[in-house]
Structure formats: structure tokens, C-alpha cells
Design a protein that fits this description.
Blueprint (H helix, E strand, L loop, with lengths): L1 H11 L6 H8 L3 H13 L4 E4 L3 E4 L8 H5 L11 E7 L2 H10 L7 E7 L17 E8 L9 H19 L4 E3 L3 E4 L2 E12 L4 E11 L18 H10 L14 H20 L3 H11 L6 E6 L2 E10 L5 E5 L4 E4 L4 E3 L7
Helix pairs in contact: 1-3, 2-3, 6-8, 6-9
This protein binds biotin (BTN).
């Protein structure tokens, strides 16, 4: 109920809504309204009260709430239940804890900041307050662990579609699931899993999107390789060369988050319905890896070659310069023209 009251107050801003009006609308006493308003305040919302005019909810820049994330989202599984937390060590850690306690399929955690955000390959993920978007979704597919590589690719496909839909910026996918725009990383995805020998217990799918950082807000070693959505949007606006096929639109943290949850829901249901091949097709369409020169290290030896294909089970197939084709399952590849590989 407090969220419905919150929504009504938010819609009415900058006007006040009287206690009498709220009590009529929701068919509850003025005292009950006052109690719900107190709950909203405890959650961090700024609700002004005037004895003559009633209540008014002030816009809250940056801070989100679970209900803003889930309200009218229209998804079937992902984001049906969401928790917004201001500060957490890592949304993946927290989601794992909730998953181990038996949370629902599709439960979503969104954080304002992370104090120990984690990246792939044991790296850290700098997660300043409200500069990035930090989301983790718990998935509980009824499948064998060996079949789950598709989620790594599906997540990247979903976030490309989500960012395109919400912002008009169309990133490409660097294998397996970095999202890049203008040759720089705009999003990273960390997928972790708990499983038995033949069955997945849960997957936690962590997504970190660079939202509003400026270059000097990235760690020094990443400045030449990282970009935020706001930086990309500004670059598109002011550049004659950096153009995108889709028109840009105004976007907010919330609109991007909701778009991500919708697209994740779509790809998740597609996987559950056996649509793996379709996911692979979309991944190929958005790939900035296939057909390009790549460099990678395998058992202490560096190889270069041309990435030629993504296999049905999600491996990257590389035609190496020594004439041998190698299929990569995980790890890191450098793609010529992306990040610092020139
Ligand atoms: C990468 O190294 O590219 C993956 C980065 C993943 C970062 C996200 S932010 C939300 C979630 N929580 C974490 O601790 N990591 C992931």
C-alpha cells in the first residue's frame, strides 16, 4: 500500500495531496495514511507534510526503490520480486545468499553502490554510488550444468537489446559477454552458478553497466578502455562520425534497469522453451568478435588468429595463424580494434 501511495504522490508532484483525499482514494483512515508515509520516509523518501496542504513527495535523484523497479514491468519471471539496496558488498554475493535461502526464480537485486563489486577472472568492479548500474538476477533453470553456457551469451544479448531500447545506443558484444561501444567497455557480466553433478541449483547473473561516469572516474588503468552510457550519448550527439542506427532517446538509470529486466525475462523464457539457436543467432548479429583478428593466451602461449564462429555450446572458434583451429570455452580474448589492441 505504501508504494501505491508513493506512486500517487510522485505523480502529483509538485502539487500536494491532502490527507483527506488520500484517505478517500485508498479507503483507509488518515492515521493509516500517516503510518504509510512514515514507512516511506524510513525507506529514505522525502515526503513533506503540511497541515494545510497535505503531503508532497520530493523527487529523489539517484535513489531508487523496489517498487519503481517492479511496478508494471510486465515480465513473467525476471524482476517479479526485486530488492533495492543502497549499499552492499556485491549484489552477486547478496543474491547468492538469497538463492541459498530459497528465493524465487527471477529475484532481482539492484544496488546504489557496491563496496566489493566483483568482475570476471577474479578482478574487482569499481562501483561508486549511482555512477554505475549494479544488478543481479537469480535464475533457477531446470537443466544440467553443462547446458548453461548459453546464459553467458543470452545475458549479453539481452543487455544489448535493453540498452538499445532504452537509450538508442547500440553496443556490440566482445566474446563472451563484454558490451562495447566506440571500442570501449560499457558493461560487464559476471555469471556464477551453484549446482549438483547433474542439476543446477541456481545461477546468479550479475550485470554492471557504466552509467554516468566521466573518464577520470574510472580506475586509471581502465580510462582508455571504459566508457559510460552518458559519455557515449554525448559523443553521439556531438560527433559526425560516431553515429548509431537508432535514434537516441532521453534515459534514466531506472529506464535502463527496467529495460534490462524485460529483455532478460524474454531471453530466459526463450532458453526455457528451447530457443538456444535463436540466442546464438542474435549473439552473432551483435558480435564484434566474429570475423576479427583476436589474440589470446592458452597455457602460457600467446596465439593470434581470426575468430570464425561461435559453436552451439558457446565456445569461440579461432582459426589460428599456425593453421590450427582452437575452441575457447572461457578466459579472455583481445579483439583487434577494441580496448588497447591496435
Ligand atoms: C566483468 O568483469 O566484466 C564483469 C563485471 C560484473 C559486475 C557486476 S556489478 C553487479 C554484479 N555484482 C558484482 O559484484 N559483480 C556484478
Amino acid at each position: 500500500m505504501r508504494y501505491e501511495i508513493g506512486q500517487l504522490l510522485r505523480d502529483a508532484y509538485p502539487e500536494y495531496v491532502s490527507g483527506g483525499e488520500l484517505s478517500r482514494r485508498f479507503n483507509i483512515s488518515r492515521t493509516a495514511i500517516w503510518k504509510y508515509v512514515e514507512e516511506l520516509r524510513r525507506e529514505g523518501y522525502c515526503v513533506e507534510a503540511s497541515s494545510r496542504k497535505g503531503y508532497r513527495m520530493m523527487p529523489s535523484e539517484g535513489r531508487l526503490n523496489s517498487w519503481e523497479i517492479t511496478d508494471n514491468l510486465g515480465t513473467q519471471i525476471v524482476g517479479r520480486v526485486a530488492q533495492y539496496v543502497d549499499t552492499i558488498d556485491s549484489t552477486n554475493n547478496y543474491a547468492k545468499k538469497l538463492a541459498a535461502e530459497g528465493c524465487v526464480d527471477g529475484l532481482t537485486v539492484v544496488a546504489g553502490q557496491q563496496t566489493a563489486g566483483r568482475g570476471r577472472l577474479g578482478r574487482s568492479w569499481k562501483s561508486q554510488p549511482d555512477k554505475g548500474i549494479y544488478i543481479t538476477v537469480v535464475l533457477r533453470p531446470d537443466m544440467a550444468p553443462a547446458e548453461t553456457q548459453i546464459f553467458t551469451l543470452a545475458a549479453a544479448v539481452a543487455v544489448v537489446k535493453a540498452i538499445s531500447a532504452a537509450t538508442g545506443i547500440c553496443p556490440g558484444i566482445k566474446w563472451p559477454n563484454d558490451l562495447v561501444t566506440a571500442g570501449k567497455k560499457v558493461c560487464g557480466i559476471l555469471l556464477e552458478m551453484s549446482s549438483e553433478a547433474d542439476r543446477v541449483n541456481y545461477i546468479v547473473l550479475g550485470i554492471g553497466i557504466n552509467y554516468s561516469q566521466e573518464t577520470d572516474e574510472f580506475p586509471e588503468e581502465l580510462r582508455s578502455r571504459a566508457i559510460s552510457l552518458k559519455m557515449a550519448a554525448d559523443a553521439i550527439k556531438s560527433s559526425t562520425t560516431f553515429k548509431q542506427a537508432t535514434p537516441q532517446r532521453p534515459f534514466s538509470r531506472l529506464s535502463v534497469i527496467r529495460s534490462v529486466l524485460r529483455e532478460l525475462d524474454t531471453v530466459y523464457r526463450l532458453i526455457l522453451a528451447g530457443g538456444q539457436e535463436k540466442i546464438l543467432q542474435m549473439w552473432r548479429e551483435y558480435s564484434v568478435t566474429i570475423g576479427r583478428e583476436v589474440r589470446f593466451i592458452l597455457r602460457d602461449t600467446e596465439y593470434t588468429g581470426i575468430a570464425v564462429e561461435i559453436t552451439g555450446d558457446g565456445k569461440l572458434s579461432v582459426e589460428c595463424s599456425d593453421g590450427i583451429r582452437r575452441d575457447l570455452y572461457s578466459g579472455e580474448v583481445s579483439v583487434r580494434g577494441i580496448y588497447d589492441y591496435v
